[in-house]
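Bug report

Summary: structure tokens for Hemolysin differ between web form and batch submission.
Environment: batch mode, default settings.
Steps: 1) Submit the sequence below via batch. 2) Compare with the web form result.

Sequence submitted:
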Amino acid sequence: MCWRSFGGEDYNDDLARLKSLLGNLGCAIPPLYKQYSEVCEPGGVQFIDFGSDPDFNNCVDVWVLVDLTYLKANRYQRYIGVHLDAQKSA
């Protein structure tokens, strides 16, 4: 499996393909990968690099870049707006 397996034009198609490929290996998409993928509008999240951590049972590490200007409105309110509202009230 390599990045060329994914077109990048259709998130749902790429996600279905990733699930299928991982399923063939007896694996599933890590929950945080899916959550990061869906926190922003298209183009707001990039998975820069992957590695495995031998000191942590060979867990896969991911370097994720999230452009907060692309946050979906409901996620912005949940993670950022609520704190701004609290500051205004204080």
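Above is the batch result. After comparison, the two runs are identical; trailing whitespace caused the diff. Residues 39-90 form one domain. The chain has two domains: 1-38, 39-90.
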